[in-house]
Design a protein that fits this description.
This protein is α+β, with helices and mostly antiparallel strands. Helices cover 64% and strands 9% of the residues. Strands 1-4-2-3 form a four-stranded antiparallel sheet. The termini are far apart.
Length: 274
Protein backbone atom coordinates (compact mmCIF):
# COMPACT_ATOMS: atom_id res chain seq x y z
CA UNK A 1 0.00 0.00 0.00
CA UNK A 2 3.00 2.36 0.70
CA UNK A 3 4.24 1.77 -2.84
CA UNK A 4 0.85 2.89 -4.20
CA UNK A 5 1.10 6.11 -2.20
CA UNK A 6 4.57 6.84 -3.59
CA UNK A 7 3.30 6.33 -7.13
CA UNK A 8 0.44 8.74 -6.45
CA UNK A 9 2.87 11.37 -5.05
CA UNK A 10 5.22 11.02 -7.97
CA UNK A 11 2.33 11.44 -10.36
CA UNK A 12 1.18 14.51 -8.46
CA UNK A 13 4.66 16.10 -8.55
CA UNK A 14 5.01 15.29 -12.21
CA UNK A 15 1.64 16.91 -12.85
CA UNK A 16 2.77 20.02 -10.97
CA UNK A 17 6.01 20.23 -12.91
CA UNK A 18 4.25 19.71 -16.23
CA UNK A 19 1.71 22.36 -15.33
CA UNK A 20 4.51 24.79 -14.38
CA UNK A 21 6.41 24.06 -17.55
CA UNK A 22 3.31 24.57 -19.71
CA UNK A 23 2.53 27.86 -18.04
CA UNK A 24 6.16 28.99 -18.36
CA UNK A 25 6.21 28.12 -22.03
CA UNK A 26 3.01 30.08 -22.53
CA UNK A 27 4.62 33.11 -20.92
CA UNK A 28 7.58 32.86 -23.21
CA UNK A 29 5.36 32.86 -26.30
CA UNK A 30 3.75 36.11 -25.20
CA UNK A 31 5.60 39.29 -25.80
CA UNK A 32 5.60 40.36 -22.18
CA UNK A 33 8.41 41.79 -20.20
CA UNK A 34 10.95 39.72 -18.31
CA UNK A 35 9.76 41.17 -15.04
CA UNK A 36 6.30 39.88 -15.45
CA UNK A 37 7.64 36.50 -16.46
CA UNK A 38 9.75 36.34 -13.34
CA UNK A 39 6.82 37.24 -11.16
CA UNK A 40 4.69 34.65 -12.79
CA UNK A 41 7.42 32.09 -12.27
CA UNK A 42 7.64 32.97 -8.57
CA UNK A 43 3.90 32.57 -8.25
CA UNK A 44 4.09 29.29 -10.03
CA UNK A 45 6.86 28.04 -7.75
CA UNK A 46 5.00 29.18 -4.65
CA UNK A 47 1.87 27.44 -5.84
CA UNK A 48 3.87 24.27 -6.55
CA UNK A 49 5.47 24.36 -3.11
CA UNK A 50 2.08 24.86 -1.54
CA UNK A 51 0.78 21.91 -3.45
CA UNK A 52 3.78 19.84 -2.37
CA UNK A 53 3.11 20.72 1.29
CA UNK A 54 -0.54 19.78 0.86
CA UNK A 55 0.51 16.54 -0.75
CA UNK A 56 2.92 15.91 2.13
CA UNK A 57 0.10 16.39 4.64
CA UNK A 58 -2.03 14.07 2.59
CA UNK A 59 0.76 11.50 2.62
CA UNK A 60 1.05 11.82 6.40
CA UNK A 61 -2.69 11.38 6.84
CA UNK A 62 -2.73 8.45 4.49
CA UNK A 63 0.23 6.89 6.34
CA UNK A 64 -1.65 7.18 9.64
CA UNK A 65 -4.72 5.59 8.09
CA UNK A 66 -2.56 2.85 6.61
CA UNK A 67 -0.99 2.24 10.04
CA UNK A 68 -4.42 2.06 11.62
CA UNK A 69 -5.62 -0.29 8.90
CA UNK A 70 -2.53 -2.45 9.42
CA UNK A 71 -3.18 -2.61 13.18
CA UNK A 72 -6.85 -3.37 12.58
CA UNK A 73 -5.93 -6.05 10.06
CA UNK A 74 -3.50 -7.58 12.56
CA UNK A 75 -6.17 -7.52 15.25
CA UNK A 76 -8.66 -9.10 12.87
CA UNK A 77 -6.09 -11.72 11.98
CA UNK A 78 -5.46 -12.42 15.69
CA UNK A 79 -9.19 -12.59 16.33
CA UNK A 80 -9.61 -14.95 13.41
CA UNK A 81 -6.78 -17.13 14.72
CA UNK A 82 -8.32 -17.04 18.20
CA UNK A 83 -11.73 -17.87 16.80
CA UNK A 84 -10.21 -20.69 14.79
CA UNK A 85 -8.40 -21.97 17.89
CA UNK A 86 -11.62 -21.74 19.90
CA UNK A 87 -13.45 -23.59 17.15
CA UNK A 88 -10.75 -26.28 17.16
CA UNK A 89 -10.97 -26.56 20.95
CA UNK A 90 -14.75 -26.65 20.74
CA UNK A 91 -14.59 -29.43 18.18
CA UNK A 92 -12.10 -31.30 20.35
CA UNK A 93 -14.37 -30.83 23.37
CA UNK A 94 -17.36 -32.09 21.37
CA UNK A 95 -15.32 -35.04 20.16
CA UNK A 96 -14.37 -35.83 23.75
CA UNK A 97 -18.00 -35.49 24.83
CA UNK A 98 -19.01 -37.86 22.05
CA UNK A 99 -16.32 -40.35 23.11
CA UNK A 100 -17.45 -40.01 26.74
CA UNK A 101 -21.04 -40.62 25.69
CA UNK A 102 -19.96 -43.68 23.74
CA UNK A 103 -17.99 -44.89 26.76
CA UNK A 104 -20.98 -44.26 29.04
CA UNK A 105 -23.26 -46.09 26.61
CA UNK A 106 -20.84 -49.03 26.57
CA UNK A 107 -20.77 -49.04 30.37
CA UNK A 108 -24.56 -48.89 30.54
CA UNK A 109 -24.75 -51.80 28.12
CA UNK A 110 -22.22 -53.72 30.22
CA UNK A 111 -24.15 -52.95 33.41
CA UNK A 112 -27.38 -54.12 31.79
CA UNK A 113 -25.64 -57.30 30.65
CA UNK A 114 -24.34 -57.86 34.18
CA UNK A 115 -27.81 -57.25 35.60
CA UNK A 116 -29.23 -59.81 33.20
CA UNK A 117 -26.54 -62.32 34.17
CA UNK A 118 -27.18 -61.64 37.86
CA UNK A 119 -30.90 -62.15 37.28
CA UNK A 120 -30.20 -65.46 35.54
CA UNK A 121 -27.91 -66.53 38.38
CA UNK A 122 -30.51 -65.51 40.97
CA UNK A 123 -33.14 -67.59 39.20
CA UNK A 124 -30.76 -70.54 38.98
CA UNK A 125 -29.76 -70.10 42.63
CA UNK A 126 -33.41 -69.83 43.68
CA UNK A 127 -34.17 -73.02 41.77
CA UNK A 128 -31.20 -74.79 43.33
CA UNK A 129 -32.13 -73.45 46.76
CA UNK A 130 -35.74 -74.51 46.28
CA UNK A 131 -34.64 -77.96 45.18
CA UNK A 132 -32.20 -78.09 48.08
CA UNK A 133 -34.91 -77.06 50.51
CA UNK A 134 -37.20 -79.72 49.11
CA UNK A 135 -34.39 -82.26 49.31
CA UNK A 136 -33.50 -81.09 52.81
CA UNK A 137 -37.12 -81.32 53.90
CA UNK A 138 -37.26 -84.83 52.44
CA UNK A 139 -34.03 -85.76 54.19
CA UNK A 140 -35.29 -84.29 57.45
CA UNK A 141 -38.50 -86.28 57.16
CA UNK A 142 -36.51 -89.36 56.30
CA UNK A 143 -34.14 -88.83 59.21
CA UNK A 144 -37.05 -88.33 61.58
CA UNK A 145 -38.57 -91.56 60.28
CA UNK A 146 -35.24 -93.34 60.67
CA UNK A 147 -34.87 -91.91 64.15
CA UNK A 148 -38.32 -93.16 65.07
CA UNK A 149 -37.52 -96.51 63.51
CA UNK A 150 -34.30 -96.64 65.53
CA UNK A 151 -36.14 -95.80 68.73
CA UNK A 152 -38.69 -98.50 67.95
CA UNK A 153 -35.90 -100.94 67.19
CA UNK A 154 -34.09 -100.07 70.42
CA UNK A 155 -37.36 -100.54 72.30
CA UNK A 156 -37.96 -103.93 70.68
CA UNK A 157 -34.40 -105.03 71.46
CA UNK A 158 -34.78 -103.92 75.07
CA UNK A 159 -37.94 -106.01 75.48
CA UNK A 160 -36.21 -108.92 73.76
CA UNK A 161 -33.30 -108.70 76.20
CA UNK A 162 -35.76 -108.69 79.09
CA UNK A 163 -37.55 -111.76 77.68
CA UNK A 164 -34.26 -113.62 77.29
CA UNK A 165 -33.43 -112.80 80.90
CA UNK A 166 -36.87 -114.13 81.93
CA UNK A 167 -36.25 -117.37 79.97
CA UNK A 168 -32.93 -117.81 81.74
CA UNK A 169 -34.60 -117.16 85.10
CA UNK A 170 -37.30 -119.77 84.34
CA UNK A 171 -34.65 -122.29 83.28
CA UNK A 172 -33.00 -121.94 86.65
CA UNK A 173 -36.24 -121.84 88.68
CA UNK A 174 -37.94 -125.09 87.53
CA UNK A 175 -37.27 -128.27 89.57
CA UNK A 176 -36.42 -130.34 86.51
CA UNK A 177 -34.84 -127.57 84.54
CA UNK A 178 -37.62 -127.85 81.96
CA UNK A 179 -39.41 -130.99 80.74
CA UNK A 180 -42.39 -132.10 78.67
CA UNK A 181 -43.11 -132.96 75.01
CA UNK A 182 -42.56 -129.40 73.73
CA UNK A 183 -40.31 -126.47 74.30
CA UNK A 184 -41.21 -124.67 77.49
CA UNK A 185 -42.57 -121.12 77.43
CA UNK A 186 -42.30 -117.81 79.22
CA UNK A 187 -45.58 -115.89 79.42
CA UNK A 188 -46.26 -112.39 80.73
CA UNK A 189 -48.07 -112.57 84.10
CA UNK A 190 -51.25 -110.62 84.46
CA UNK A 191 -51.11 -108.68 87.71
CA UNK A 192 -54.46 -109.95 89.04
CA UNK A 193 -54.04 -113.68 88.23
CA UNK A 194 -51.72 -116.38 89.43
CA UNK A 195 -49.34 -118.19 87.06
CA UNK A 196 -51.43 -121.40 87.48
CA UNK A 197 -54.30 -119.48 85.93
CA UNK A 198 -52.16 -117.87 83.20
CA UNK A 199 -50.47 -121.13 82.21
CA UNK A 200 -53.68 -123.17 82.56
CA UNK A 201 -55.44 -120.92 80.07
CA UNK A 202 -52.72 -121.50 77.42
CA UNK A 203 -51.34 -124.44 75.41
CA UNK A 204 -48.54 -124.65 78.02
CA UNK A 205 -50.93 -125.60 80.79
CA UNK A 206 -48.55 -126.42 83.68
CA UNK A 207 -46.83 -123.76 85.79
CA UNK A 208 -43.31 -124.46 87.05
CA UNK A 209 -42.48 -121.03 88.52
CA UNK A 210 -43.57 -117.40 88.90
CA UNK A 211 -40.59 -115.06 88.59
CA UNK A 212 -40.09 -111.32 89.01
CA UNK A 213 -36.92 -109.76 87.61
CA UNK A 214 -35.48 -106.27 87.18
CA UNK A 215 -32.18 -104.81 86.06
CA UNK A 216 -30.32 -101.51 86.25
CA UNK A 217 -29.12 -99.55 83.26
CA UNK A 218 -25.49 -98.99 82.60
CA UNK A 219 -22.28 -100.89 83.10
CA UNK A 220 -21.23 -102.22 86.50
CA UNK A 221 -18.50 -100.17 88.15
CA UNK A 222 -17.87 -102.30 91.24
CA UNK A 223 -18.32 -105.84 92.55
CA UNK A 224 -20.66 -104.75 95.32
CA UNK A 225 -23.07 -102.88 93.04
CA UNK A 226 -26.57 -104.31 92.63
CA UNK A 227 -27.29 -105.01 88.96
CA UNK A 228 -30.79 -106.43 89.29
CA UNK A 229 -33.42 -108.20 91.44
CA UNK A 230 -35.49 -111.41 91.26
CA UNK A 231 -38.26 -113.18 93.14
CA UNK A 232 -40.17 -116.44 92.82
CA UNK A 233 -43.68 -115.96 94.15
CA UNK A 234 -44.93 -119.47 93.40
CA UNK A 235 -47.56 -120.52 90.90
CA UNK A 236 -50.63 -120.46 93.18
CA UNK A 237 -50.68 -116.80 94.28
CA UNK A 238 -51.15 -113.60 92.27
CA UNK A 239 -48.41 -112.04 94.40
CA UNK A 240 -47.90 -108.28 93.99
CA UNK A 241 -50.86 -107.08 91.96
CA UNK A 242 -49.37 -103.67 90.93
CA UNK A 243 -49.86 -102.90 87.22
CA UNK A 244 -46.32 -101.57 87.10
CA UNK A 245 -45.15 -105.20 87.09
CA UNK A 246 -47.47 -106.16 84.20
CA UNK A 247 -45.66 -105.91 80.82
CA UNK A 248 -48.86 -106.05 78.78
CA UNK A 249 -50.28 -103.06 80.63
CA UNK A 250 -46.99 -101.13 80.61
CA UNK A 251 -46.12 -98.39 78.17
CA UNK A 252 -43.84 -99.06 75.21
CA UNK A 253 -40.95 -97.28 76.89
CA UNK A 254 -41.59 -99.01 80.20
CA UNK A 255 -38.71 -101.36 79.43
CA UNK A 256 -36.37 -98.41 79.88
CA UNK A 257 -37.66 -97.68 83.37
CA UNK A 258 -35.85 -98.85 86.48
CA UNK A 259 -36.03 -98.41 90.26
CA UNK A 260 -35.59 -94.60 89.90
CA UNK A 261 -39.12 -94.44 88.39
CA UNK A 262 -40.62 -97.06 90.69
CA UNK A 263 -40.76 -99.79 88.03
CA UNK A 264 -38.40 -102.28 89.59
CA UNK A 265 -39.85 -105.56 88.33
CA UNK A 266 -41.62 -107.30 85.52
CA UNK A 267 -43.27 -110.66 86.34
CA UNK A 268 -43.38 -113.75 84.15
CA UNK A 269 -44.87 -117.26 84.30
CA UNK A 270 -42.68 -120.27 83.54
CA UNK A 271 -45.05 -122.69 81.72
CA UNK A 272 -44.72 -126.12 80.03
CA UNK A 273 -46.93 -128.58 78.21
CA UNK A 274 -48.03 -131.51 80.35
Amino acid sequence: MTSSICVVLCLALATVEITAAVELEGKRQRPDSDTEAAEDLKDLLYSSMHNIVSLNDLVTELSEKIAKLTISSAENTAEMKLSKAETTLSRAARSKEIEDLKTDAARVSEVESLKEQIGTLNKAFSLVLENKEVALAGMTTQMEAMKEEQVELDRAHAWQALHMAAAAACRGSTPTGGSGPNGNAVLAKENTRSCDQVCGASYFNVCDADISISGYKGQATSYSQRLGHFYNYGCGSPGNTSERFDEVKAGGDGVFSDHSTGNWYYRFCCCRKA
